[in-house]
Amino acid sequence: MSTLTSSTVAPVDFAGLAARFRPVFARIAAGASAREQDHRLPAEQIKELTAAGFGALRVPVADGGLGASLPQLFRLLTELAAADSNIAQALRGHFAFVEDRLVASGAQRDVWLARFVRGEIVGNSWTEVGSVTVGDVITRVRPAVGGKPGELVVNGTKYYSTGSIFADWIDTFAQVGDTGKNVIAVVNAHQPGVTHSDDWDGFGQRTTGSGTSTFVDALVTEENVIDFDTRFKYQTAFYQAVLLAVLAGTVKAAEVEIAAEVKARTRIFSHGNSQSFATDPQILQVVGEVSAQAFAAEAIVEKAAWALQGAFEGAFLSDVVEEERLNDLAELATAQAQVVLVALATRATSDIFDALAASGVSRSKNLDRHWRNARTAASHNPWVFKARIVGDYVVNGTQPNRIWSIGAAPK
After folding, report:
1. Which GO terms label this protein's molecular function in UniProt (predicted)?
2. Contacts 24+ apart (CB under 8 A), 284-292
């Protein structure tokens, strides 16, 4: 068992990590379009990833994991998103919880790292259902009636439970019934008190396994109820960075498919510029622009990931002021990245059709899924608010709010 500090994080060879997972990514990509069309959840694909150790990417080598840095993690998440953006987003809650356990201390840290190494996956369940006033939490944790010492129950309903349908554990935001303390209750998903509905009805990211999670006297042990105030400080930046990787991977997937379609096309236009679509300079310009946008998207994700790496390392400094500064920088970096990448990704995944003519919109090709997926991922955490926050920092030095919530406006 290791005690992690920034000075003990040894560099891991990215080429070796990539070689381990790229064959899995290729198999995932081969069936991505069909799964989306048929609405088949990628449960087997996620199992193959976890069996290969993907869920333990961030776990230190000394603890049985692969020891990836945050830039390495996000490079691989971008590649995974290029194969199937749904799967990358489905693992968002898992990697966030892994990150939280990495900066934690005590015996439970080692317990959780061992679970990740065994291939156990954590889902996400935070957003309250219904007209809950912004900031309120109605999901409750209370002592189990007639239960054993340290045995509690969770009751509540959540939406946007991305990835929870694939999970062994569900990271659930709740309040302690008698104190009102905000906590994370990590609930074992394999029990009768937990149900999950695949009822997400968005037009994109259809197979993330999102939807409604319901907890009815779901058992949770005291050691798996974590004080929310101890949660890793760069969490919102981390969650946003996963969506950035989803967007970047989606653009890359669009680039790959548009190039293949243009190369294979035999029909031309009489008023075009070549006897071949694959050599028409105007068509090549469109493909080149999308490729450049994919390049820029990946660079943006990497820049944000380095800011997150700084925040991670800041968690092990004995300097609270510097730690806070690094966390603010990570929040700002992911916000700046989001503002740019949303526009870039939605444009690139729309522009692909300029190179394909009417046949490109064929339902059988399913190329519109890239725009739908990008538009859906881009709609989380509206960028317009992030742009204002960045502007307020640049002009007035106002520090970004790293914790926020969603709900009905107060009456």
Report:
1. 3-methylbutanoyl-CoA dehydrogenase activity; flavin adenine dinucleotide binding
2. 286/258, 286/351, 286/352, 286/354, 286/355, 287/255, 287/258, 287/259, 287/262, 287/355, 289/348, 289/351, 290/251, 290/254, 290/255, 290/258, 290/348, 290/351, 290/352, 290/355, 291/255, 291/259
Backbone angles phi, psi at 171, to 5 degrees: -75, 105
- pLDDT (tens digit per residue) in 210-220: 999 999 999 99
- What is the rounded CA–CA span in Å between residue 254 and residue 395? 37
pLDDT on residue 410: 78
Alpha-helix runs per DSSP H in 192-280: 235-264
Distance CA(162)–CA(196), nearest Å, equals 10
d(CA 167, CA 122): 5
Query: For the chain, which domains are there?
Result: 6-121 (1.10.540.10), 127-230 (2.40.110.10), 235-396 (1.20.140.10)
Among 337, 309, 314, 403, which residue's Cα sits nearest to residue 58?
309
Q: Exposed, middle or buried, 228 (CB in 10 Å: 0-12/13-18/19+)?
A: middle
154 burial via Cβ count (<10 Å: 0-12, 13-18, 19+): buried
- DSSP code of residue 144: P
Q: What is the pLDDT of residue 288?
A: 98
Distance between start and end Cα atoms, the chain: 51
CA–CA distance, 282 with 287 (Å, rounded to integer)? 9
Summarised one tens digit per residue, pLDDT across range 96-122 is 999 999 999 888 999 999 999 999 999
Q: Look at residue 90 in the predicted model and tell me its pLDDT.
A: 98
β-bridge mates for residue 133, sequence order = 408
Q: Which residue has the tokens 């959780």?
A: 112
Contact 121, 50 (CB under 8 A): yes
Q: Are residues 253 and 370 in contact, defined by beta-carbon separation less than 8 angstroms? A: yes
| Nearest alpha-carbon partner for 294 in 374, 217, 230 | 374
Where the chain has pLDDT below 70, the residues are 1-10
For residue 152, give the DSSP letter: E
Identify whether the C-beta of residue 368 lies closer than 8 Å to the C-beta of residue 374: no
Amino acid at 291: S
- Residue 131 is predicted with a pLDDT of 75
Looking at residue 6, its pLDDT comes to 43
